[in-house]
Amino acid sequence: DLSQFGSDLGLYVENGRVAVAFPIDALSGAAYAMRPGDNVDVLMSLSLVKADEEFNTPLPNVVSRVDAEALANGQSFLLPEALQGRLELVPQLDIVAEIVPGTNTFPGFEPGQQIPRRVTQLTVQNAQVLWVGTWKDPRILEKEEEQANDVQPVGAEGDGSGETAVIQPTPTPLPQRFDNPPDLVILSLPAQDALSLKWALEVGLDLTLVLRAQGDTTPFTTTSVSLPQIIEQGGLIRPEPGEYLLSPPWQDVPAPSLPVEPPGGSGQ
Questions:
Q1: Is residue 245 pLDDT above 90, yes or no?
Q2: Is the pLDDT of residue 59 over 50?
Q3: In a domain, 158, yes or no
Q4: Residues 16 and 133 in one domain
Q5: Which of 114, 133, 183, 202 is most open to solvent, judged by the fewest CB atoms within 10 Å of its CB?
Q6: Residue 69 has what pLDDT?
């Protein structure tokens, strides 16, 4: 009896590793191609903004201008605050000026709001897939099992023998590729990697599982990818100003996405 030793799944977790559940969809889960025994790596993408080290809040700060003469005389010295600007010395004029952001902002951001810097890196490596499937409440599974094994007395309405007849459940057809796509994968990985994965899930990072070649456990050394790195690696040249604009504007064009229904319908 294996029940006295714990769960069946625990038998597949190697010593020194732990098992964690990870939600997936078609894009983050390698198009549902993973199977138990596969090895996967985790790609993480996050957006960063500059912060004030003392306040631990995103920049820019609220800047209040100071009347130096009023300050020296012990009077009220704060001028109206500059919500989105900063004070800088303009050497050509030898005066202090308030610098504020322009009104031409990035789509989706308010004037003065930082545009997050996006960066992606391969973090967790060689996590082993233990299970892939659709999570279901164990209480529902237990109830369905009871209904499947339900018995009905024949008695007077039967053959009079008083015996019971087992109601056989209707066989369930084998699922096709697109029937009930999985939404969960259980990974086996070192405890430190499990902590990294938990933190990333809790703060809402963009996570993607990538499938390794069968039996490949080679450790990868990668460089994190951001816009400057993409420009340098790809040899991209900054476009020169021109007399034409895209119509419609690129920010108004919807991003590509998966169809609601897979090609060919439900796969049946």
A1: no
A2: yes
A3: no
A4: yes
A5: 202
A6: 75
Written as six digits, the tokens of 29 are 């889960």
Give CA–CA dist 206/189, Å, rounded. Answer: 19
User: What distance in Å separates the CA atoms of residue 196 and residue 193, rounded to the nearest whole number?
Assistant: 5
Q: What's the distance, CA 212 to chain centroid?
A: 20
Give pLDDT tens digits for 127-137: 999 999 887 77
SS3 helix, strand, coil % of the chain, rounded to 5? 20, 30, 55
State pLDDT tens for residues 96-142.
Answer: 766 665 555 556 666 667 778 899 999 999 999 999 988 777 777 77
Label residue 42 exposed, middle or buried (CB < 10 Å: 0-12, 13-18, 19+).
buried
For residue 106 the two structure tokens come to 């990035």
131: nearest Cα among 185, 63, 173: 185
Please answer whether residues 106 and 115 qualify as being in contact, where contact means their C-beta atoms are separated by less than 8 angstroms.
Answer: yes
Domain total of the chain: 2
Residue 23 sits in the same domain as residue 106: no
pLDDT score at 40: 96
**Residues 61 and 112: beta-carbon distance below 8 Å:** no
